[in-house]
Amino acid sequence: MTILAIDVGTQSIRAAIVSKDGKILEISQKQQEVDSPCPGWVQQRPQLWWDLIKQAISELVKKTKIDINSIQGISTCGQMHGPVGIDDHGEITTEWTQIWMDKRCENICDKIKKEHDESDLANITGNPITTGWPGVKVRWIKDNQPEVYEKTKVFLVPKDFINFKLTGVEATDPSEASGTYIYDFKSDSYNNQMAKILDIDLSKFAPISESYETIGYIKEEVSNELRIPANIPVVAGGGDFIVSLLGLGLVGEGTAVDMTGTSTLFVVHKDEPIIHPSVQNLRHVIKGWLSFTMLDTGGLSMKWCKDFLSSIGKEEITYEQMINMANKIPIGSEGLIFYPYMLGERRQENTMARGCFYGLTLNHNAAHLARSVMEGVALAIGKDVQNFRDLGVNLKQVFCIGGATRNKLLYQIKADVMQLPQILTEEPEASLRGCGLLAAFGLGLIKNLEETAKLKDSNNIVINPNKSSSEKYKKLLEEFKRMYEHLIGYWS
Fold it and tell me: How confident is the model over 170-197, as a mean pLDDT?
């Protein structure tokens, strides 16, 4: 008995066959790009997601030695918060979807903050208002594309859009619904008052099912096209980073996680949301809440640096070469500090921020820039970790996942900045594993979801902080925070 797992990522689309206990048996992947037509705008085409998923599944079916008839269910996770409009005929109304890092609706956030007490709204939603939330993005569509808003029956986030294409059913789950900014964290349901404040129609948002519940069955025409069995149940699924935590077995009060792929999220698992202007909260796909901060360009900054260094030479620089360059530079990059908010940040006063280097001198070269970028990312997260500590969160260690974990220098810097051990986990496909486990539990193939999710015989790599380095970074973090405070609101 197996599960077909799908991950709608920002930079790649993946499909996998997963055993009921979470083992990845076969996988297929397709790459994609983001489009940024002007500053603050970041978008993708939902039709391309569906096309790439069909390609990935078809490729999977052709190359796998696993019996396709063993597939008992389908589970999807994906990049969060991007509203895809669907009309009465099931057609896409939003050719381009504002994805999670898009900042175009900043003026709407400003308007809401001027007209309402944000702390009162946070006591309903559990969140500060940011440009990331689908409710705010939908309000932007209503104001700027009224014809699109009017003909849209329902707005679905990426994984819910894929589930709709598979089943024809409009549905979402608590991990996504809790991030709409029209959700009441006390009642675990949509809130009419918030919909009125945003001036959007609550009926345009999908009904909420638990992440492991069956929402529908694969349509016959899709089954025939993809050559997979008909009438397979499809569960609601969840947001990608939340499903990844399940896939790593990282559940329980106090768990801290650094997730660095395109972005960097620093996440703690709590029984209740942490209500604070700098902290965002989402429902877990199991019990409890995930409180987190986010750096949109955590991993993307490293990619930018590699591409930048490659652009000034005849040959492309590899990540390994970039890391070796940075390794030769002393802590603090000889006074050079990187400000890593290259696509802004979710803090409302700073949504339009840009990246910059602070402290450049004639002595700095490409290697200094490489190390400074890694330090800037680590310092930005270190600032957030200090805030969690100030809010009473007890942190003892950090589990680290994502493609950036291959960069051991980066995680040594993070260990030193946070003064916390960094545990680099060994499961490379946590999101797909989490998808498989969700469906297996929902379909009754496993009995205890949390116990099955725990990784057995782990060979995690532990990077401990260096005492002398931590003392140096402690001073550097204060300098970073001073620069950060000066630059808040500089870009408008």
Answer: 97
Residues 334-359 pLDDT 10s: 999 999 999 888 777 787 889 999 99
Residue in the structure block whose two tokens are 């149940």: 233
108: left (phi over 0), alpha (psi -120 to 50) or beta: alpha
User: What is the β-pairing status of strands 154-156 and 84-86?
Assistant: antiparallel
Would you state the pLDDT for residue 254? 65
- Is residue 6 domain-shared with residue 101, that is, in the same domain? yes
Residue 252 and residue 234: Cα distance in Å, rounded? 27
Three-class DSSP category at 184: strand
Bridging pattern class, strands 256-260 and 398-401: parallel
- Residues 47-61 have pLDDT tens digits of 999 999 999 999 999
Residue 492 lies in a domain: no
Q: How many CB atoms lie within 10 A of CB 168?
A: 14
pLDDT averaged over every residue in the chain: 94
Whether the predicted pLDDT of 379 surpasses 90: yes
118-125 and 106-115 helices, crossing angle to 10°? 110
Tokens representing 231 are: 């009438």
Listed in sequence order, the residues at least 6 apart from 324 whose beta carbon sits closer than 8 Å to its beta carbon are none
Nearest to 428 by CA among 99, 2, 22, 10: 22
Q: Are 102 and 344 in contact (CB under 8 A)?
A: no
| Domain boundary residue, one of 244, 259, 278 | 244
Note whether 226 and 135 are same-domain residues: yes
What value does the mean pLDDT take over residues 126-134? 94
| Backbone phi and psi for residue 432, each to the nearest 5 degrees, phi listed first | -70, -40
Question: Considering only CA atoms, which of 468, 291, 297 is closest in space to residue 385?
Answer: 291
**Measured between alpha carbons, how far is 158 from 99 in angstroms, rounded to an integer?**
9
Q: Which residues contact 205 (CB under 8 A, 6 or more apart)?
A: 154, 155, 172, 177, 180, 182, 190
Structural domain boundaries enclosing 353: 300-424+461-487
Q: How many structural domains are present in the chain? A: 2
Q: What is the pLDDT of residues 97-120, one digit of tens each?
A: 999 989 999 999 999 999 999 999
Task: Say if 453 falls within a structural domain.
Answer: no
Both tokens of residue 215? Answer: 């929402």
Radius of gyration of the chain (CA): 22
Give me the CATH number covering residue 395: 3.30.420.40
Q: Is residue 266 part of a domain?
A: no
Q: How far is CA 325 from the centre of its chain?
A: 29
- Left (φ > 0), alpha (ψ -120 to 50) or beta: where does 41 sit? beta
Q: Would you say residue 348 lies in a domain?
A: yes
Residue 469 and residue 365 share a domain: yes
Lowest mean pLDDT among 34-38, 123-127, 146-150: 34-38
